[in-house]
Design a protein that fits this description.
By secondary structure, the chain is α/β, with parallel strands linked by helices. The chain is built from 23 helices and ten strands. The strands form two sheets. A six-stranded parallel sheet has the order 1-10-7-4-2-3, with helices on both faces. A four-stranded mixed sheet has the order 8-5-6-9. Bound molecules: iron/sulfur cluster.
């Protein structure tokens, strides 16, 4: 078992038994569920909207080469710069070198999962810069020195009391749990950062090919401040964020808002196409877009799993997942947690180390049902499991056990005899009072649960008795 898998199991056992954590998550998820249901009901046909989004992303991903080049041309025509980063190192180096060469001392960031993916902030800090996350949730987890808990709501695991204590300790905040007062504390610090930073870094929810613009959605207005006040704006994004046309946003924006937070539309929707031009009152002097590949091209080359690149990072699959709800975001130990993270991470960081995530699923299909771009997530988890087995990453004893299982299941007589033996063995173990000991094959299950009763007879014999047929 890989180190990442062992750590996952350790954290999962700890978090699923942490009742305070579960209470906070259940409360926040209930709020989300209600808002999401309300949001869907505002559409005359929610499924038709999802289908439309799926079509848009299918077209974009299957013509990625053409649309990305079109986007690059348009940005350059307006005086912007586009850098193609094949991996994390290249992306980090480009931004750090740029910041150093322009004498940047302070950087403000709006929410961007790609910057987390490539570990940009530590690299900037190592180069001597001060970095401020400006999305409130991101700022909170930055103060706690933690990664985001959720791709849309990074501080979902915290209650107001914990945030009050954090602000008291780090920002000399007041002794209150009142949300507006807590927000005011963060605002005081962040406003100073916005107006003194030389560089603003954002992500991009979409890259619009025909307009040559990036589209950013935020609820706090921090995206606009990050991208318009500092003299340099760097937008960092995965290559899969491309969409063909400006008019596609008419569907994608409300669908993203509904799936992400249950809102009809996110509060601030911004389109940015280049640096400030002559005669314009605001905007940056320099505009750079960093297009990050980092394993995405390999995924693109796989026709079976290419559609994973359709993801618009709404977070709905995380909210729907019973495993995520139980173990929480930090347990995954990955930038992208939940079902989409479990599908994506083995591609980005290696099947060997992260194949265990494919098993962090009940395969209930809830993630697939809610995905606004209709990614068949639970089947992709199965594909990853199959690929791991084909790659021979599973231990020999597991393969042997499944061979034995198959041999038993392929013959009714064998199944009957071996099933009977297993029930007898369990009765003996429990009769001798060894239930809970290492001899008990059910031990991993019963450690945290009431023991399952051992059935007195097999399903087949009960069926025969009730129905009189074999
Ligand atoms: S896979 Fe679908 S539901 Fe999950 S984050 Fe991406 S778009 Fe949203």
């Amino acid at each position: 078992m890989s180190a990442a898998a062992q750590e996952f199991l350790r954290r999962a056992a700890e978090k699923s038994a942490d009742l305070t954590h579960r209470k906070i998550i259940r409360f926040n998820m209930d709020q989300y569920d209600a808002a999401f249901a309300r949001g869907q009901s505002r559409f005359s046909d929610w499924d038709a909207a999802r289908e439309q989004c799926q079509r848009i992303k299918w077209e974009a991903i299957n013509h990625l080469d053409r649309y990305l080049v079109e986007f690059e041309q348009r940005v350059k025509e307006r005086g912007g710069h586009v850098f193609w980063a094949e991996n994390s190192e290249e992306a980090r180096k480009y931004v750090v070198d740029l910041a150093v060469s322009r004498g940047v001392k302070k950087v403000v960031k709006s929410k961007s999962m790609v910057t987390e993916e490539i570990h940009l902030s530590p690299a900037l800090e190592k180069a001597g810069m001060e970095v401020f996350e400006t999305d409130l949730g991101e700022y909170i987890v930055q103060l706690r020195n933690e990664p985001p808990y959720h791709i849309v709501t990074p501080a979902m695991h915290l209650n107001r009391g914990q945030i009050r204590d954090l602000f008291k300790e780090k920002l000399d905040g007041p002794d209150t749990e009142d949300p507006p007062e807590l927000v005011a504390v963060a605002r005081r610090t962040l406003r100073k950062a916005f107006f003194s930073a030389e560089m603003g870094i954002s992500g991009a929810n979409f890259l619009v090919a025909d307009a040559g613009m990036i589209a950013i959605t935020t609820n706090e207005g921090n995206g606009r401040l990050c991208t318009s006040v500092p003299r340099i704006h760097v937008a960092m994004t995965g290559i899969e964020k491309i969409i063909p046309r400006l008019q596609d946003l008419a569907t994608l924006w409300p669908v993203l808002a509904t799936s992400g937070t249950g809102q009809p539309i996110t509060c601030y929707n911004t389109l940015i196409g280049g640096p400030r031009r002559d005669g314009e009152a605001d905007g940056p002097e320099e505009f750079h877009v960093v297009l990050v590949d980092n394993g995405r091209s390999e995924l693109l080359a796989d026709p079976e799993q290419r559609e994973v690149l359709h993801c618009i990072r709404c977070g709905a699959c995380l909210n729907a997942c019973p495993v995520f709800r139980s173990v929480g975001g930090h347990t995954y130990g990955t930038i992208y947690p939940g079902p989409i993270g479990s599908v994506l991470t083995p591609h980005l960081r290696g099947l060997d180390e992260f194949q265990h995530l494919s098993y962090a699923s009940s395969l209930c299909g809830g993630c697939t049902d809610v995905c606004p771009v209709r990614i068949d997530l639970h089947h992709h988890l199965l594909h990853n499991r199959r690929n791991a087995i084909r790659a021979g990453t599973h231990p020999g004893r597991e393969r042997l056990a499944f061979r034995f299982w198959r041999w038993m299941m392929m013959d009714a007589g064998r199944f009957r005899v071996l099933g009977g033996l297993a029930r007898t063995a369990l009765r003996v173990i429990h009769g001798l009072g060894l239930g809970g000991s290492v001899l008990d094959p059910m031990r991993p299950w019963t450690e945290r649960r009431a023991p399952m009763p051992i059935p007195p007879a097999s399903f087949r014999s009960l069926w025969r008795k009730t129905n009189g047929v074999r």
